[in-house]
């Protein structure tokens, strides 16, 4: 049935190895064409149509396309259009693509998987007639080209072999490699370049726009603006002998001419400045950098710089602004950062970017600039003939190349998302930019759902503990439809040894895993989404709506399946025993926080719900006290809530979230449940328990924070979380109630991110959760909106024998990869949520101007970073350098004797600048303290604020914006 | 998932086999004249030699009145792997393999026939490309048959691993080195396919219960396939050896 | 040292089979069911399981009345009473020698089963026991006859005949026992001047022919003769015979005086003994010998 052939490969791994691998050649591989009557196809194995219609004017007869590797790699967007069908993808091509670019490989697989596209992948490497051996001295590339030609000509003869009538499809080879094309023509294979082919395609408008620009080789130095990148071998040897370093390039958000690369061997990230220093690296790329000698090291500039609005052509503008300021003015070693330049790109991490087109000023031009929404991505030059239509749209663009003679990278248009300013289009941008999977649930996923009128089957009730008679209630924010938790508490008979009253307290979590069975399409979709994403006016569900807001949601008065965690607790909130079981519950009431609070406070109410809430509330306070005594941190992040117009879904008012006692009541019990579950899992699964840890922040994170606090007269002890918490509590300024919150906001930004991990990948002492001050933690209580909880549910159910385990659940490696995805999605969801808040803030300010109190978070060379506590808004307040003098050492700005420094309170005017549609931004203008000629003077005379700035003359250190600023430490059991 | 790319989307493995296919097996009996029985076996690029001495008088210390003492020695040539590596005879790995060989072969040999005797089986791996143990067992079986030692049935060994194709578990038969190195579990089964009994089961990693049966049945299928191949080789060998004897005896 | 060394690739190996148009017998392989019926007797190479008789070795079936045996292509020597064997002394024990005879257990040569110097049957004294090593010591080769078979399959030998006993100068060759043809006589004086003992156990002893006179001579003379160097031509002839046997064995041909003599005669076309080690030459010799055997049978 098969023959065998071995071939030799040489690899370098220190030594030269001769590797002999088997390679079986088969005679049972099908050609996949319906026009073939040689291969023994079964009916469902025909992929290619028997009489494919030609859409190309160059080839007026039916034909199949055979693609060369370079076509797939560069023209993926063309292929993704529905235009080209009946395409043969050779295995040679598939493997080369996989090797060179996994993202494109995945997209290609997607197309092949789509039956309508009629893409057939032919295993030419294992076919006995199309396999070729690499000749002596032949380059792998040439060999692959030859293999492709061989397969193409085999197809041609194979299809013609038994079709005497001449009614058979021909083969057209598409390749952009001129050499290959030439040889193919000599061998009698019909071939064509992609450009020629696509330009002659009829009936698909816009296909040409998607053509990727031809790549100009790096060696071409004509009109070069940028130095050439090194070749891969040069980079490789450079890294090997320690001259070069590799790392991921991160562009600065504030300054488009600055970026950093973290490399091994240097504690600080390497600073890259200017066009030449960055040398065409784009955020996320893996680059090779050369580090300058120490005397040329600089410090990061502290100016905010944006790319100019108009297209200056292929020129690099003067970088004097940047370079002047960047000179090491002092010997302050703290700020000097290793500096270097990019000498080569190891791997591009380009994706598709959302943004808007900035049409060229010349009418009829086809070359336009595209501004991505993400500030860290440079502008892109694209070619399109539809600029009139696209100018008012949000569009998606892919990067193709960045030749040396182009100021901007070259790209091509992918698709339009919708009109600018349109809510849906804007949301789409947010979701795309944060890589949030948001497509509608597929048929396969929906097929996994129970019917709409599903009720709990009798036998399922029998298997579970019946808690329907117990008074259980849920407490959630108003408008919440995905209720994943409910609580109950009741006194039980007997007392503890010390004579304390005992309570039974239960936390009941929606039993999502009953519906989401492992390895189903539904499970895979949920795992890929990992979390429900909350935008201001939209929720991207992790599981379909039927589950999230109906069958799983623990609605009041309805029987639901639950996973219960029940404790016996004495009145001092000591846990006496814990048990877990699956149950059936019937929630007595689904309340909002406020309703619950009223029920507790209203002493007239003596019903079961009220009394159990009171017990819960009392216990929660004791639990919280204990937790804080243990050193748990109370941190703050500005959280706001939009009041949304019910008709237009536009925000009409914004307010800080209200916190009542019941918030923390629910939170405490969720924490307790999570900790209880975590302990159980860690004991049962030393290798694959899914846990959540929060590493203690490195002391270096705190330095600037501590200095700033010191200026305000507070000594913060950060040695342990306990002392940190205690000293934060003490740092109060009586007449500035917001100061403590501000301090906590700043403290939050010093924190590390909490992450999911698998217990097999870390040591026991690394499990610690710093923010909560507990040795072990996980997420159990929100399976409707977090996939981590789903996994935890499965693990727990398996270890208490209520469910079967399945293989992937217990696989440490797999658990680890799940954790990576969870962490990534979790982070992206947070960013997306924030972006949505920002978007709505912009909408809110579209037609209004406000004058608000603000606080200075940090001082930059040309701006102040200010926070508006009322809206939780943050942004730069630009200071013109002709008026203000920046004191670099003391970090303050001074103008006419008015000093502005960190922690200062100001009054600012807020308005929306819509001149740039792409980056509509809030403009902050200084109102108070009044600086003549600069400050905004309100039309009506403002009564001078009584509390003028306390002008302490202490040194003020500027705060650097930290990555950690995005840390959100305060764990909320509820949204 | 471990090793999702062990199977291509067309359902072929890295070397072009389908999941249920063995590697090419070539074997030859009676390659030496000195030992009582010997065999050479190639399973893909894995190449092993087996030699059998005995049954002969057992050393006094080992001698057993219950049956023959089977003594196995598994060793790996220094040049058998990609990188040359000096392996001292009797290192831990070889010792373990020797034990496993012994277990599988003792199950096949009718040990009760030869009390106080001893059979020495030497297996030398000339080239290791995955599944050296399996090839060793198969070669040793041939060598035992060549030596005319009574066996209950052929002892065959085969390995199987797990891969996923389109989300479905698909066990791989006769795991090669590349697939072994890609991680994932390797289940090695030594069995007497004729009787359906399993002489040895060994698993490299943890495998979930759910998949165990499919992997095991795939490996057993491999053992049965190997038995057919070995049987054919034995018959060819007999045909070659027998003719002349008969002519002379007439 | 100089000299030609010929190393061949495995792929160039010569196929030693001597062509034959004979129909193949039915082969059985281990585990194969021979018959399902129970009214047969279980012989060598078979075992009963699940109500059927199965083969335990690979070979052909031999049926004697109701006794079914499977004879393997080759195996260790299974001794029968009266067999002539050549063996090597392994151990000197109390009143007996342990002898290696290619059997699956070591054979025993009782002190009482040897002719001690003096020829006549005489009482074995304690002195004799102490002198055993003088008579036969470890490593000595002997020819002997199987006297009896013990219950565990091990053999008891005797040398109580003048033709048996310690073997002096000569060459030992080991072949598979199954290749040795059972004959009345296993001692041959080949016409080429070599005497040969074809042991049933597959050990073959080649030695220069002795003058018959010496058989009658006294012990000292014999010993003296044994110590004399063998002349070159005799040694060459022995080597030639040995290579002939090797050629026959390589082609799996049965060994007896006829086949060896035929092979010897055919080998004479190779003037140098060394040349006979060439695989093609071996095949040639075996083939021609086979041809002559076939002719002899036809006649």
TrEMBL record, chain A:
Signal peptide (from-to): none
Residues in PIN domain copies: 63-182
Region (Disordered): 944-975
Keyword DNA damage: no
Protein keywords: Exonuclease, Hydrolase, Nuclease, Nucleus, RNA-binding, rRNA processing
UniProt xrefs under InterPro entries: Dis3_CSD2, NA-bd_OB-fold, PIN-like_dom_sf, PIN_dom, RNase_II/R, RNase_II/R_CS, RNR_Ribonuclease, Rrp44_CSD1
The keyword Hydrolase appears for this protein: yes
Subcellular location: Nucleus
RNB domain span: 464-802
Bias (Basic residues) ranges: 958-975
Skewed-composition ranges (Basic and acidic residues): 944-957
Source domain of life: Eukaryota
Pfam families tied to this protein: OB_Dis3 (PF17849), PIN_4 (PF13638), RNB (PF00773), Rrp44_CSD1 (PF17216)
Family: Belongs to the RNR ribonuclease family.
Name of the protein described by the UniProt record: Exosome complex exonuclease RRP44
TrEMBL record, chain B:
Pfam assignment, any one: RNase_PH
Occurrences of domain Exoribonuclease phosphorolytic (ranges): 21-150
CDD domains registered for this protein in UniProt: RNase_PH_RRP41 (cd11370)
PANTHER family (alphabetical): EXOSOME COMPLEX COMPONENT (PTHR11953), EXOSOME COMPLEX COMPONENT RRP41 (PTHR11953:SF0)
Similarity comment text for this entry: Belongs to the RNase PH family.
Protein name: Exoribonuclease phosphorolytic domain-containing protein
Species, as recorded: Loxostege sticticalis
UniProtKB/TrEMBL annotation, chain C:
Name of a matching Pfam family: KH_6
Highest taxon listed in the record's lineage: Eukaryota
Entry keywords, A to Z: Cytoplasm, Exosome, Nucleus, Phosphoprotein, RNA-binding, rRNA processing
CDD domains xrefs: KH-I_Rrp4_eukar, S1_Rrp4
Any one annotated GO CC term: nucleolus
Transmembrane parts of this sequence: none
Listed GO MF terms: RNA binding
Positions of the S1 motif domain: 82-160
Subcellular location: Cytoplasm; Nucleus, Nucleolus
Chief location bin: cytoplasm
One record GO biological process: rRNA processing
Family: Belongs to the RRP4 family.
Quaternary context: Component of the RNA exosome core complex (Exo-9), composed of EXOSC1, EXOSC2, EXOSC3, EXOSC4, EXOSC5, EXOSC6, EXOSC7, EXOSC8 and EXOSC9; within the complex interacts with EXOSC4 and EXOSC7. The catalytically inactive RNA exosome core complex (Exo-9) associates with the catalytic subunit EXOSC10/RRP6. Exo-9 may associate with DIS3 to form the nucleolar exosome complex, or DIS3L to form the cytoplasmic exosome complex. Exo-9 is formed by a hexameric base ring consisting of the heterodimers EXOSC4-EXOSC9, EXOSC5-EXOSC8 and EXOSC6-EXOSC7, and a cap ring consisting of EXOSC1, EXOSC2 and EXOSC3.
Name listed for the protein in its UniProt record: Exosome complex component RRP4
Organism of derivation: Loxostege sticticalis
């Amino acid at each position: 049935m098969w023959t065998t052939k071995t071939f030799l490969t040489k690899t370098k791994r220190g030594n030269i190895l001769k590797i002999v691998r088997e390679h079986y050649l088969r005679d049972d591989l099908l050609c996949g064409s319906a026009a073939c009557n040689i291969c023994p196809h079964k009916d469902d194995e025909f992929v290619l149509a028997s009489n494919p219609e030609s859409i190309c004017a160059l080839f007026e007869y039916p034909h199949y396309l055979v693609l060369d590797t370079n076509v797939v790699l560069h023209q993926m967007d063309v292929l993704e259009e529905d235009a080209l069908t009946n395409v043969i993808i050779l295995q040679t091509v598939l493997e080369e693509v996989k090797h060179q670019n996994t993202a494109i490989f995945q997209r290609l697989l997607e197309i092949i998987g789509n039956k309508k596209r009629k893409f057939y992948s032919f295993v030419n490497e294992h076919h006995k007639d199309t396999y070729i051996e690499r000749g002596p001295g032949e380059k792998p590339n040439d060999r692959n080209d030859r293999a492709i030609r061989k397969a193409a000509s085999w197809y041609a003869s194979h299809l013609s072999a038994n079709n005497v009538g001449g009614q058979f499809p021909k083969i057209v080879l598409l390749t952009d490699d001129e050499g290959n094309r030439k040889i193919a023509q000599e061998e009698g294979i019909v071939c064509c370049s992609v450009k020629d082919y696509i330009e002659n395609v009829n009936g698909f408008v816009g296909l040409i726009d998607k053509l990727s620009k031809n790549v100009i080789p790096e060696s071409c130095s004509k009109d070069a603006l940028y130095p050439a990148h090194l070749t891969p071998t040069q980079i490789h040897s450079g890294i090997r002998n320690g001259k070069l370093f590799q790392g991921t390039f991160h562009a600065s958000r504030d300054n488009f001419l600055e970026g950093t690369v973290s490399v091994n061997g240097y504690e600080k990230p390497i600073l890259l400045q200017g066009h030449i220093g960055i040398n065409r690296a784009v955020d996320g790329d893996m680059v090779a950098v050369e580090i300058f000698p120490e005397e040329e090291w600089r410090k990061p500039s502290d100016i905010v710089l944006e790319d100019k609005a108009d297209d200056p052509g292929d020129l690099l503008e003067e970088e004097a602004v940047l370079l002047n300021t960047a000179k090491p003015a002092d010997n302050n070693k703290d700020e000097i950062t290793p500096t270097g330049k990019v000498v080569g790109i190891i791997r591009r991490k380009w994706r598709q970017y959302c943004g808007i087109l900035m049409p060229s000023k010349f009418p009829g031009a086809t070359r336009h600039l595209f501004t991505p929404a993400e500030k860290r991505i440079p502008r892109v030059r694209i070619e399109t003939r539809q600029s009139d239509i696209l100018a008012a749209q949000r569009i998606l663009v892919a990067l193709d190349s960045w030749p040396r003679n182009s100021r901007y990278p070259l790209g091509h248009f992918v698709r339009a998302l919708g009109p600018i300013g349109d809510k849906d289009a804007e949301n789409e941008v947010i979701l795309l930019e944060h890589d949030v999977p948001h497509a509608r649930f597929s048929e396969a996923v929906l097929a996994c759902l129970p019917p709409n009128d599903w009720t709990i089957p009798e036998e399922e009730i029998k298997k579970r503990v019946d808690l329907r008679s117990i008074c259980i209630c849920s407490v959630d924010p108003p408008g919440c439809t995905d209720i994943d938790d409910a609580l109950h508490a009741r006194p039980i008979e007997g007392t503890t040894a010390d004579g304390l009253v005992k309570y039974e307290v239960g936390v009941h979590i929606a039993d999502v895993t009953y519906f989401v069975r492992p390895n189903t399409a539904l499970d895979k979709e949920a795992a890929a989404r990992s979390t429900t994403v909350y935008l201001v006016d939209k929720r991207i569900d992790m599981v379909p709506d039927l589950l999230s807001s109906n069958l799983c949601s623990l609605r009041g008065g309805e029987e639901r399946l639950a996973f219960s965690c029940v404790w016996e607790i004495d009145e001092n909130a000591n846990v006496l025993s814990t048990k877990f079981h699956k149950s059936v519950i019937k929630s007595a009431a689904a309340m909002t926080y406020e309703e619950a609070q009223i029920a507790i406070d209203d002493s007239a109410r003596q019903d079961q719900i009220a009394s159990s809430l009171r017990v819960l509330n009392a216990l929660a306070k004791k639990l919280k006290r204990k937790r804080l005594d243990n050193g748990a941190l109370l941190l703050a992040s500005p959280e706001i809530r939009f009041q949304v117009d019910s008709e237009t879904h536009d925000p009409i008012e914004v307010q800080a979230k209200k916190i009542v006692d019941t918030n923390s009541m629910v939170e405490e019990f969720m924490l307790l449940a999570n900790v209880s579950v975590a302990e159980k899992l860690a004991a049962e699964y030393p290798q694959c328990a899914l846990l959540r840890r929060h590493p203690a922040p490195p002391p270096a994170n705190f330095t600037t924070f501590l200095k700033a606090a010191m200026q305000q007269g507070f000594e913060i002890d950060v040695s342990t979380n306990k002392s940190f918490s205690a000293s934060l509590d003490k740092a109060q300024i009586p007449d500035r109630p917001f100061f403590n919150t501000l301090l906590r906001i700043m403290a939050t930004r010093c924190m590390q991110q909490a992450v999911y991990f698998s217990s097999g990948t870390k040591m026991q002492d690394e499990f610690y959760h710093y923010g909560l001050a507990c040795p072990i933690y996980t997420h159990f209580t929100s399976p409707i909106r977090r996939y981590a909880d789903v996994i935890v549910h499965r693990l727990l159910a398996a270890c208490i024998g209520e469910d079967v385990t399945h293989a992937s659940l217990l696989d440490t490696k797999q658990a680890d990869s799940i954790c990576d995805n969870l962490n990534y999605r979790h982070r992206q969801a947070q960013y997306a949520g924030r972006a949505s808040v920002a978007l709505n803030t912009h909408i809110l300010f579209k037609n209004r101007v406000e004058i608000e109190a603000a606080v200075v978070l940090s001082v930059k060379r040309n701006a102040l970073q200010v926070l508006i506590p009322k809206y939780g808004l943050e942004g730069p307040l630009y200071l013109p350098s002709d008026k203000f003098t920046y004191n670099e050492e003391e970090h303050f700005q001074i103008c006419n004797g008015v000093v502005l420094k960190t922690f200062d309170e100001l009054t600012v005017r807020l308005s929306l600048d819509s001149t740039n549609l792409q980056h509509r931004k809030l403009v902050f203008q200084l109102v108070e303290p009044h600086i003549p000629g600069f400050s905004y003077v309100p039309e009506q005379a403002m009564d001078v604020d009584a509390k003028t700035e306390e002008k302490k003359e202490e040194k003020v250190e500027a705060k650097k914006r930290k990555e950690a600023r995005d840390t959100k430490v305060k764990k909320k059991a509820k949204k | 998932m471990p090793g999702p790319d062990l199977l291509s989307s067309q359902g072929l493995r890295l070397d072009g086999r389908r999941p249920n296919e063995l590697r090419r097996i070539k074997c030859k009996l009676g390659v030496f004249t000195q030992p009582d029985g010997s065999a050479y076996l190639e399973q893909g690029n894995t190449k092993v030699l087996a030699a059998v001495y005995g049954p002969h008088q057992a050393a006094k210390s080992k001698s057993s009145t219950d049956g023959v003492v089977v003594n196995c020695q598994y060793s790996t040539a220094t040049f058998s792997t990609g990188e040359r590596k000096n392996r001292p005879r009797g290192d831990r790995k070889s010792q373990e393999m020797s034990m496993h060989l012994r277990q599988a072969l003792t199950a096949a040999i009718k040990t009760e026939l030869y009390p106080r005797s001893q059979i020495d089986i030497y297996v030398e791996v000339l080239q290791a490309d995955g599944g050296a143990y399996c090839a060793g067992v198969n070669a040793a079986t041939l060598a035992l048959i060549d030596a005319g030692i009574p066996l209950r049935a052929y002892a065959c060994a085969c390995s199987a691993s797990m891969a996923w194709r389109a989300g479905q578990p698909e066990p791989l038969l006769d795991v090669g080195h590349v697939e072994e190195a890609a991680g994932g579990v390797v289940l090695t089964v030594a069995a007497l396919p004729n009787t359906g009994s399993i002489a040895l089961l060994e698993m490299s990693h943890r495998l979930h219960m759910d998949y165990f049966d499919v992997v095991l049945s795939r490996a057993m299928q491999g053992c049965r396939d190997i038995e057919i191949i070995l049987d054919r080789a034995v018959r060819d060998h007999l045909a070659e050896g027998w003719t002349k004897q008969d002519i002379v005896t007439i | 040292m100089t000299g030609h060394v010929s190393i061949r690739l495995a792929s160039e190996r010569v196929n030693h089979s001597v062509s034959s148009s004979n129909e193949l017998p039915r082969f059985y392989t281990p585990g194969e069911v021979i018959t399902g019926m129970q009214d047969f007797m279980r012989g060598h190479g078979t075992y009963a399981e699940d109500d059927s008789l199965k083969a335990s070795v690979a070979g052909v079936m031999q049926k004697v009345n109701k006794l079914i045996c499977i004879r393997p292509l080759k195996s260790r020597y299974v001794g029968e009473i009266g067999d002539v064997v050549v063996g090597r002394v392994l151990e000197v024990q109390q009143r007996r020698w342990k002898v290696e005879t290619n059997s699956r257990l070591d054979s025993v040569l009782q002190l009482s089963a040897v002719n001690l110097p003096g020829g006549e049957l005489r009482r074995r004294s304690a002195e004799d026991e102490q002198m055993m090593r003088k008579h036969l010591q470890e490593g000595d080769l002997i020819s002997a006859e199987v006297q009896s078979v013990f219950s565990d399959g091990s053999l008891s030998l005797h040398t109580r005949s003048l033709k048996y006993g310690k073997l002096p100068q000569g060459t030992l060759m080991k072949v598979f026992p199954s290749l040795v043809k059972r004959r009345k006589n296993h001692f041959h004086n080949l016409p080429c001047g070599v005497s040969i003992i074809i042991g049933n156990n597959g050990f073959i002893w080649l030695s220069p022919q002795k003058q018959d006179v010496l058989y009658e001579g006294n012990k000292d003379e014999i010993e003296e003769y044994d110590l004399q160097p063998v002349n070159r031509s005799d040694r060459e002839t022995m080597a030639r015979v040995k290579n002939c046997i090797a050629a026959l064995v390589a082609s799996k041909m049965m060994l007896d005086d006829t086949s060896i003599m035929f092979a010897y005669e055919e080998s004479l076309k190779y003037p140098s003994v060394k040349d006979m080690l060439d695989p093609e030459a071996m095949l040639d010799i075996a083939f021609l010998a086979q041809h002559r055997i076939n002719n002899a049978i036809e006649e």
